[in-house]
Prior knowledge:
disordered N terminus, about 270 residues, D-Maltodextrin-Binding Protein, domain 2
Amino acid sequence: MSAYPSMRRAATMLSAAAISFLMAFLLLAAGSFAARADDTKVLASVALKATLTDLTAKYESTGGGKVAVDYGVAAQLKQRILDGEATDVAILIRAMMEDLLKQGKLSGDIVNVGGTPVAIAIRAGAPKPDIGSVEALKRTLLAAKSISYSDPAKGGASGVAFAKVVDQLGLTEQLKAKTILVPGAQAPDLVAKGEAELGVAQASEILPVSGVELLGPLPAPLGSVTLFAAGISAGSKSPDAAKALIKFLTSPDAAPVLRAKGFGPG
Length: 266
């Protein structure tokens, strides 16, 4: 008796099982895509990453819709919006948001979320150098073996601000050989790894990093606070959801998280 009929039946059964599996996979993938499509999409400065991670989780857990956040250097995100990238909410430096509003890229008003100072990070447990005055900061920078901060050419707010401070102090050439420029908010991470002695970043970028301590903000009159604001994209497909998210981020419920992450009132 030929084994071919049995083999054909087995092959038919296997094909049917494979087709069923493929259809189930495609349905699951389609469901996942639909969920992603319904997310409230946010473009936000990397300075807000630790803060928004906690706040969006709280928002979702209390009945808010799903939120998908794409982080980056504020200046680069602004350009992406100018180039037409679709999003629902933008949370960038206030001056950038005002410019986007003037150019018709935002709908309605922009709302302050909070401000965070440009600050210095040291490795946890390391001796704490004095940065309490302009002269003390100058001595500390000259004595440091290495200093890391965001590359000003890439538009990071803390890097732009600190480069101006270095220039004001007349230290540009003296610090050049021991300066480590990073593309974004990685300066505190280099300090934690022992690859840089001092790291300059927004306070909100320093506090979440394990293995570093916030030494303090830059002293007056050199210090600066970066103010971040939120707004709804003119092209948002979910303006109501965007409005609800911004309302939550600027509500009293969000304030304790903002304070804990290095943000003051907007």
